Amino acid sequence: MLTVRFHRTTLFIFFFFISLFNVSAQVTKMPAYPLITHDPYFSIWSFTDKLNESNTKHWTGKEQSLLGLIRVDGKVYNFMGVPAYPLQWLAPTSELQAHASKYTTITPAANWMNEDFNDAAWASATLPFGTKESNPSTEWNTKEIWVRRTFDVFDTTIRQLLLYLRNDDDAEVYINGEKVYECTCYTGNYQEHELPATIIQKLQRGKNVLAMHCTNTGGNAWLDAGIATRQSIKNIEPAIQNALYVTATQTKYLFSCGSVNLEVDFLSPLIAADLDLLSRPVSYITFTVTAKDSGIHQVNVLLSENAGVAGNTGNELMNATSYQTKTLNILKCGTESQPVLQKKGDDLRIDWGYTYMTAPQQKQYDVKLTSVQNIIKDYLTNGLLTSPYISQTAHDVNLLLAANISLFTGSDNTNHATLMLGYDDVYSIEYFNEKLQAWWKKNFQSMNELLETSFQQYQDIHTTCDAFDKQLYDDANAAGGETYAKLCVMAYRQSLAAHKLVRGAHDEILFPQKENFSNGSIWTVDVTYPSSPLSLVYNPDLLKGMLNGIFDYSESSKWTKAFPAHDLGTYPLANGQTYPEDMPVEEAGNMIISTAAIAKAEGNANYANQHWKTLTQWVEFLVKDGLDPANQLCTDDFAGHFARNANLSVKAIVGIDAYSMMANMIGDKSTAKYYDSIAHNYAQQWQQLAADSDHYDLAFDAKNTWSQKYNLVWDKLLGLKLFPQAVYDKEINYYLTHQNKFGLPLDNRKTYTKSDWILWTSTLASTQNIFESLIDPVYVYATQTPTRVPLSDWHETTDGSQVGFQARSVVGGYFIKMLEWKWKEKK
User: Which residues pair with 246 in a beta bridge?
Assistant: First the structure.
């Protein structure tokens, strides 16, 4: 243990921390906070305002625990995560262990959930139950099912009782006849629910009964549950969190830990303009400790990473190793099975490749494979990690990658130490049956080489990120004001980290996104379109990477329709569309407008010219079917399909004139004139077809309806002049009378909204005051929503709750106002 001397006061340190950035340039409240954010698989967040109020999680909500402890003067504080022993299962889920149950699909007697109910007439089967498509142990095809299973309890001195439930759809759960949980919902994975002390008191020594009732309201079905206990660790005190600031690439915390202050900085260097840096799957965690007084203090900081970061379920068998490179100590861990690219779907985490914890080969750093039990045995006692993990193969609930850091004072009496967390996914996606690797592997032969370089470049990268964070905020503030700038900060890392930057077979840029908590699709065109403004502001090559896959598919023999595909598959397998329904007008308009936006951003149509034949096919489709769309799927059909969609028609009209703009840029004046004439004629017709007394309707001839006409924004940004300002103003004035506390509804059918579209709609406003009137409720939602998950773009405007979706790339659409500002500045 090293002894260090500090002499700063608490007040001084607090203001020192704040002085690192302009306070006005910080976000201090979000639904969830990005810590390690790189791609859909390597993405760790804090879902609570205080870093030590909950364990860190993957964006899906599955626990991926980072634990932070600090030992000061012999006393231990936790600043990240909640220290606890591994779960002890009373009734394991079927994911862990097959278990028998009794069930019926016929409505039972009213006391069916009680422990003394006679279920002898019920059928016997093994959980889980589900429809055939879900591959359950026992097939369930009726609307309702009632299930009972028993479990034994030998020690009733339980402090924390947890229900783990996966249900599709509505469920109610009982223990010994007492209802413990009920919801009208479905979950794609096991959700943890802490049960109250009154339920713990219902447990009895020996046999207990877990009873469940589930109703399938439509589609696939699933039911399984388990019961576990968790024991907290004694002699650890929560650190006091004094401050939290989020910038575009960093999340910073300040804690009070007895006689010292601790600053923790999470840095994921997602610099969109630098593809090589953006692609690196390496984040930095920096610790700075400063004393509150002039006393002498013994300080050790411990960071541990649960091996589950490299697994999907949290129950895989793991292999781990420790080794050294030229200048680094490295811990490496991955699943024993390594099923590379063997799974696809939405609520999934990676279970192949390897997670890395890295520290420099310096005396103050001690890195080891360890366990919670060893931390209790060693660190809490003497501040050391003296007991290594007995085996390098274990279930991940027991295995931790840990670094124990002794901090030294410098001449300025501050202590700094930096660790790196990284992930090598080996292969990132499958692209038309070819396995492709991440972009960073173009420059590095191995993960070790990347880690060495990343460590050597840390100071330069940190300086670059500091400058970028300030520039982003300043530009967004200039474009739309302080509230708008904060929304852009919230969106930046989330949007980029929903993608994976991949190296194509011919070194082309591929930048597919995962349609997070929507359906898990890869390369979804109507997700690319709303997310595009961020890439257009910082690096149009990234938008090309989103379009390249769709162009490749359309220009091959694999896709033969007159309009673009909806997607290229289910993440991470991009082998062709898997979504069961097309979006003809939607995706044709999206692809043409997005290509035209690249031309506008770059000042030439070279990219469009490479795909001119395909674009021409799509524009002809829009000319034929776009003005008055038939009943078809579009991106906003949450409340059902309908024909004659006025906003979809706007997209088609803008798409036709965007093609005209590109034709003019490549020198084809006659073609440009032809399509420009069609687009302007259609725009005139639209104003008659959609007209209502004081606004424009949701659908043609559907009087007294309305919707956000956010697609008009590209008429404004591309300078097409299809619709007069009076059309924008008429719509905006109407919207201002229909807002709720948490935003403007998507249309008159429901009170929910899409926040990305509100930002697009607000950009049609003619004044800053009106713009702010439309975006302010979105900020209220982002800071007051009761749903604590990475920012959801689909929320209820009456109470701010999440309706669906989370951690999606579409929040890149928040940058639409900055894009307008940037293009104006270039003139």
Answer: 27, 251
Q: Which residues pair with 170 in a beta bridge?
A: 215
Q: Where are the beta strands (DSSP E) in 158-229?
A: 161-168, 170-175, 178-183, 191-195, 206-215, 222-229
Across the range 419-429, mean pLDDT stands at: 98
The two most distant CA atoms of the chain are separated, in Å, by 86
Strands 3-5 and 296-306: antiparallel
DSSP per-residue codes, 446-505 = SHHHHHHHHHHTHHHHHHHHHHHHHHHHHHHHHHH-HHHHHHHHHHHHHHHHTB--EE-T
Do the Cβ atoms of 599 and 661 come closer than 8 Å? Answer: yes
Distance between CA atoms of 352 and 354, rounded to whole angstroms? 7
Residue with tokens 């895989």: 316
Give the bridge partners for 360, in sequence order: 328
Query: Rounded to whole angstroms, how far apart are CA atoms 612 and 590?
Result: 15
For every residue of 731-778, DSSP letters joined together read HHHHHTTS-BTTB--SBTT-SEEEHHHHHHHHTT-SSHHHHHHHHHHH
Which two three-digit tokens encode residue 292?
């509150």
Contact call for residues 292 and 13 (beta carbons, < 8 A): yes
- The two tokens of residue 404 are 């124990």
- Separation between Cα atoms, residue 149 and residue 139, nearest integer Å: 17
Strand ranges in 565-644 using DSSP code E only, listed in sequence order: 573-574
Q: Look up residue 473 and give its two tokens.
A: 């905020």
Q: Give, as one character, the DSSP assignment of residue 559.
A: -
CB 696 within 8 A of CB 688: no
Give the pair of three-digit tokens for residue 743: 């935003």
DSSP letter string over 770-819? HHHHHHHHHHHHHHH-S--SS--SEEETTT--EEE--S-GGGGGGGHHHH
Helix (H) or strand (E) holding 596: helix 584-602
Number of other residues whose CB lies within 10 A of the CB of residue 393: 11
* Gap between the Cα atoms of 473 and 326, Å rounded: 38
Phi and psi dihedrals of 804, rounded to 5? Answer: -170, 180
pLDDT in tens, 724-770: 999 999 999 999 999 999 999 999 999 999 999 999 999 999 999 99
Contact 428, 285 (CB under 8 A): no
Omega prior to 128 cis, within 30 of 0: yes
CA separation for the pair 421, 398 (Å, rounded) = 19
Q: Mean per-residue pLDDT for 647-661?
A: 98
Residue 654's SS3 state is helix
Instruction: Confirm if 778 and 487 have CB atoms less than 8 A apart.
Output: yes
Query: Measured between alpha carbons, how far is 721 from 718 in angstroms, rounded to an integer?
Result: 8
CA–CA separation, 542 vs 273, rounded Å? 9
Distance CA 498, CA 765 (A): 29
- Cα four-point dihedral sign 130, 136, 140, 145: negative
pLDDT in tens, 591-645: 999 999 999 999 999 999 999 999 999 999 999 999 999 999 888 888 888 999 9
> Which residues, 6 or more positions from 822, have their beta carbon under 8 angstroms from its beta carbon?
475, 479, 537
Q: How far apart are CA 240 and CA 537, in angstroms?
A: 39
Identify the residue whose tokens are 């329709």.
561
CA distance 69 to 511: 37
**Whether 94 contacts 244, CB under 8 Å:** no
Query: 154: left (phi > 0), else alpha (psi -120 to 50), else beta?
Result: alpha
Q: What's phi and psi for 277, nearest 5 deg? A: -75, -40
Instruction: Check: CB of residue 783 under 8 Å from CB of residue 30.
Output: yes
d(CA 289, CA 286): 10
- Round to whole Å and give the CA distance between 296 and 7: 9
Regarding pTM above 0.85, the answer is yes
Q: State the Cα–Cα distance between residues 361 and 595, nearest whole angstrom.
A: 49
